[in-house]
Amino acid sequence: MKMILPFAAIACLTFAGCTFVPYFSSVTSVDYSRYNNENFYITEANSVSFAYDPVGSVEVVMRSGYKGVYNETSRTTTYSKEPTLVSVYDVIDGVKKECENLGADGVINFKLSFDRVATQYSVWNGAELETGMMVTATGMAIKRK
Which of 8, 18, 76, 116 is most open to solvent, judged by the fewest CB atoms within 10 Å of its CB? Predict the structure, then answer.
């Protein structure tokens, strides 16, 4: 029995590394200038050179997927035939709207996070599985003095 254990361990290690991992590359840049042109201040810095009042923390998360409409009568959800794809600007627009709802005119310490995950919302495009993109944005809403 003691002789089998080392061979079993070697076999597990040998076959555990035989997975196929496809190559993936992604380059993303985000232009904040259109928001500055709308008199909404965005910076990734956690300190700024002007006076402000902190208003609150903001987080917006959006994920690509199929939109559902709930029917109260039948108690069923009908999903769209085409997926709704999320862009980074949809998320930033959500942050801007939430900040304005709070009475803020800017956000500092702004962070974006991009995740590509295969979920039940992934789309088969005929050749490969397109994963849904999930974008998370966080920051502190401020009111400039």
Answer: 18
Residue 23 is assigned to a structural domain of this protein: no
- Which residue ranges in the chain fall short of pLDDT 70? 1-21, 24, 117-132
Q: DSSP characters for the chain?
A: -TTHHHHHHHHHHHHHT---------------HHHHHTT-EE-S-S--SS-EEEEEEEEEEEE-B--EEEETTTTEEEE-SSPBPP-HHHHHHHHHHHHHHTT-SEEEEEEEEEEEE--TT-EE-SSSEEPEEEEEEEEEEEEE-
Summarised one tens digit per residue, pLDDT across range 111-144 is 999 887 655 545 555 544 455 678 899 999 999 9
Residue 22 lies in a domain: no
Domain that holds residue 130: 31-144
Work out how many domains the chain is built from and give that number: 1
